[in-house]
Design a protein that fits this description.
The chain is mainly alpha-helical. It has two domains: about 1-40; about 55-105, no CATH class. The chain is built from six helices and no strands. It is rod-shaped and about 80 Å long. It starts with a helix and ends in a 5-residue tail after the last helix. The model has no long low-confidence stretch (mean pLDDT about 85).
Amino acid sequence: MNRIEELKDLHLQSKPLLELFLSNVRTALVEGSTAKLYRIVYGVKDVVISYDSVIDELFQEIDHLREALEWYATPYNYSTEHLDKYGHILIDQDGGKRAQEALRIDK
């Protein structure tokens, strides 16, 4: 399982907790219990910090994957002018290595 799949799994697992949180907030509001509402909201800070770090990690992963994708999308890497200079086309020499590294696939 790659890191994105792990993060998706964590997100799916947290959905029932979100529903419980919202239900508890609604109940506290209906009951007019500020003490209960304070206890519920007080724990939100840790959840927000946790999600913030997950979002940062996802942005890093997006940047990592985008870098590899941009390399494959660059026409220069397919140019036959490299045959005269290097004896091969850059994309052929790569053999998918950049994609495998970006996807963290071991070969």
